[in-house]
Amino acid sequence: MTNNQLLNIADEHGTPTYVYDANKIVEQYRKLQNSFTPLNVKLHYAMKALNNVNVLRLLKNEGAGIDAVSIQEIELGLRAGFSPVDIMYTPNCVAFSEIEAAVELGVSINIDNITMLEKFGVKYGNSVSCCIRINPHIMAGGNSNISVGHIDSKFGISIHQLRHVVRVAEAHDMHIIGLHMHTGSDILDADVFLSGAELLYEAANHFKELKFMDFGSGFKVAYKAGEMETNIDKIGSKITESFQAFCKTYGRELELWFEPGKYIVSEGGQFIVQTNVVKQTTSTVFVGVNSGQNHLLRPMLYNAFHTIKNISNPKGEQKLYSIVGNICESDTFGHDRLLNEVREGDILSIHNAGAYGFSMANQYNSRLRPAEVMIYEGRYHLIRKRETLEDIYRNEIEIPELVSTDIFKEIM
After folding, report:
1. Among 236, 264, 292, where does a domain finish?
2. Which of 264, 280, 299 is the endpoint of a domain?
3. Span 219-237, mean pLDDT?
């Protein structure tokens, strides 16, 4: 998307606003899909990254399924038109009643702890098939908060508990049709996937009814110029070779599943904000914008880097700034960044904001969550209205005895 497009959107819809490029999202999806030819690959988009119904439908039209982690995400996926069989439900630390509700909706069930596996076996036996999430004990990912396959992670059943898993499955005559792993995010090395894959291949010997293997995701995108990103063609080639060899040994061809989220939508999103103040202190020049960690949490939560540009003054002299928000916390989008001279009222664009931007936004400080716009077939489409104050107090219930009428009488 161009600076002019973003400025036009700022004029028409205001700021702060998330803007998504449908073409880029589709491009990333197809690039990943084509990297594993000729395998039978199914991509389940991890909708926690960005769950606007228009994004979901865009990817559904490309043939994607979805990866859901809550009953609410399942319901949103169904609302977007996905068939239950195209929804993979991978919960963590949920009540068994939520898993039962997911079974009723007809989606694929992925179980990540032995307690739930036993309950599932007792209730459903061989009447409902399921997948098992294995923790491979592999440390991988760009930040400790997104490394989910190591020994201290709450996710998955330890590979060392495999024998117990087999006993539970056999005791209840369970139909295990898939094995799953997810080690983390921002993975560059194919060997990370292959190391985990070898563990799943070995585990597969205990389950003769498998239909698919799910390698999760974690493919890295570049957040700054010159930064390394996953060589998806190279990784695709290595995983394809490895999986074909496994299928030959296993005795039949299985489907290979992935659950990409950030890889598909991150680069397709930008977040546009407006400069409120340019504040000079004794040591720093701050650019204060009309947003904060309540709208884009990643820099604060993950220490994530996002490229920031002044699209209102692209030819201005470059100066050093720290870009901060308007929240009563140290919410900094970027420290010591060279930007073209920033003036009050200038529009800044924050790049790679498609993933875990709006989906993690909140109403801290009673600030309103931003609007969302999609550029689709050359046109700007408002796909989520900016919140209003009424949205903040909509579900509040007042205690009548606490409502004072005296104040209103004085005003009148």
Report:
1. 264
2. 264
3. 82
The tokens describing 48, both together, are 């926690």
> What domain count does the chain have?
2
Annotated catalytic, 328? Answer: yes
pLDDT, tens digit, 9 for 90 and up, residues 239-291: 999 999 999 999 999 999 999 999 999 999 999 999 999 999 999 999 999 99
Contact 367, 327 (CB under 8 A): yes
Q: Is residue 4 part of a domain?
A: no
Exposure class string for 82-106: b at 16+ Cβ within 10 A, else e? beeebbbbbbbebeeeebbbbbeee
Under the banding of pLDDT at 50, 70 and 90, the label for residue 141 is very low
Separation between Cα atoms, residue 213 and residue 180, nearest integer Å: 6
**Block residue for tokens 């070995």:** 202
Q: Is residue 334 part of a domain?
A: yes
* Same domain for 254 and 184: yes
Query: Are 225 and 324 within one domain?
Result: no
Among candidate residues 93, 130, 131, 328, the one labeled active-site is 328
Domain residues for 351?
Answer: 269-393
Beta-bridge partner residues of 67: 46, 88
DSSP 85: G
Domain assignment of residue 6, yes or no: no
Contacts with 406 (C-beta within 8 Å, 6 or more apart), sequence order: none
pTM for the whole thing?
A: 0.92
